[in-house]
Structures are given as C-alpha cells and as structure tokens.
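Hi R.,

Here's the chain you asked about this morning:
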Amino acid sequence: MLGSPYPGQPAVGTDYPGQAGPGTAYPDGPADGPRRRGRLPVVALALAGVLAVVAGVQAYQIYRLDSRLAATDRRLAEAQGADGRRLDGLETRAEALEKQAGAAFNPEAVASAVLPSVFRVRAGDFTGTAFAIGKPPSGGGTTLLTNFHVVESVYDGGGRKVFLERTGQRFEATIVKVEKDKDLAQLRTTARFTGLVAAAASVRSGQQIVVVGAPLGLQDSVTTGVVSAFRKDEDGSGPVIQFDAPINPGNSGGPVINGSKEVVGIATAKARDAEGIGLAVPIKTACDTFKIC
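And here is the predicted structure, written out as tokens:
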C-alpha cells in the first residue's frame, strides 16, 4: 500500500469499515416481476370482455340485417306474386280480346268455310241451290236441304232424282221428304260432304249474315247483309227471316249464314218490285220438320 503524502490522511485505497469499495455489490431492491404478472389476467379479461361486446354488437347487427333482408325478400316475393297475378289477368284479357277479334264478322272466312258444302241443284229445267247439313245419315252419304219449289216440277211429276253440281262435278241426289206448306225439301246423296252446322240461337235484327247460292245458275255466289227483322207466323206459313242481302232466282234453297259460320235460315224468296227485301225459312223450322239437325 502506498503511504499518504500528507500526515493524518488515509492513503489511497484504504478501506473503511462499512463503506463500500469499488465493485461492492448492494442488495437488490424489490422485484417487479410478480406485480406485472398479476396485471396480465385482468387485462386479458378486459380484452375478452371488449371482444365479447364487439362480437355481440356485430351479431346483433348481422341479425338485424338478416331480418331486414328477409323482410325485403318477402316484400319482393309478394310484389312478384302480385305482378304475376296482374300479368295473368292481362294475358287472360288479351286472349279474350283475341277471341273477340277472331269472332268479328269476316265474310271471306265465312264463305271459305261454307262454300264446299253448297251446290247448284238441277231439277228438270229448274235451277236452285242446296247445302249439306248435319251429321252423315246412318246409311252413309250426305243429307241436304233445299226449297220445295226448287224440286217441285220433278217431285210432282213423280220423279225423285235431281243432280248436285259443284266445280265441274256432278252428283246424283234423291228427294227423300218434302214439306210443301213450309217450302222445304230434304235430299240425300251417296257422296260424302261436310255438313254445315245449324245455329242454336235465334237471329236478331241487325245481325250480319252471308248468303251463298247460285243466282241465275252462277255457282259460289256470295252476298252479305243484315237481318232486317224476324217475322212471326202471320199467314199460317210459319215464321220467316227478313234480310237485305241481294238475292236472285237461283239463290232459292241456299244457306243464310251468321258470323260464326252457322246456318240461320234457307233463302226462299225476294219481294217483287222491291230491292233489299229477301226472305228465308228459319233453320229451326227445317230441323224440327225433318229431325235431321
């Protein structure tokens, strides 16, 4: 040890009791580890609580969103159902209008449908018209109607054979029955033709009609008009239909057709010295007389 240069002063490096020298270790202070470890569970619980709250809020929001979406889907489904019902209603209405348009009076369509069933009749020297009516008879062939005065000369002369002519073809027919007072005659041929349909309803004034026949021997002649009146039995000869469609000799026995292609009458005469006054026997009269419709 080096001595002190000054008397009474300790030499450098002298150690005093109770004094720490260089490098002396002091006891450590209180440890922080246990206190920090005690805070971690609290923080974790707090975070878990916050996360639970956040998750709950999100779940509630998702639930509300799902509920709104479900309600929106229901409203859309209801709206689509209502639209579908409205569309169905419009389609039904459109179909009804199409049917009404189709049912509108169309003389060309009527003539096209009935002409194949209408014939020129030659009975001796007399020429008139006849048409197929109803279903085929049990023995086959075709039933036809005409006026009695068309076949009168043949019938009164004891004959029963007349001839049907159409588009260059000729078919023999037989007079089966007559009703002189009603000016009606029933014919039958072995040839097969489509029978026209008799109208079930009575005619109405103003109803549009088509008259088909062979005026003056001219086959497939078509005229149009309206029903002027339905005349009841005034002179004992039965009711008649008055119409304004032009007719001439040769039209007798031809069908008077409505817009539905049904026979409403049998053209039988026109007023002398007057235009626009034609007369027809109601088809119901012929059907009831011969029991064929």
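One quick note: The first strand starts at residue 118 and ends at 123.

Cheers,
M.
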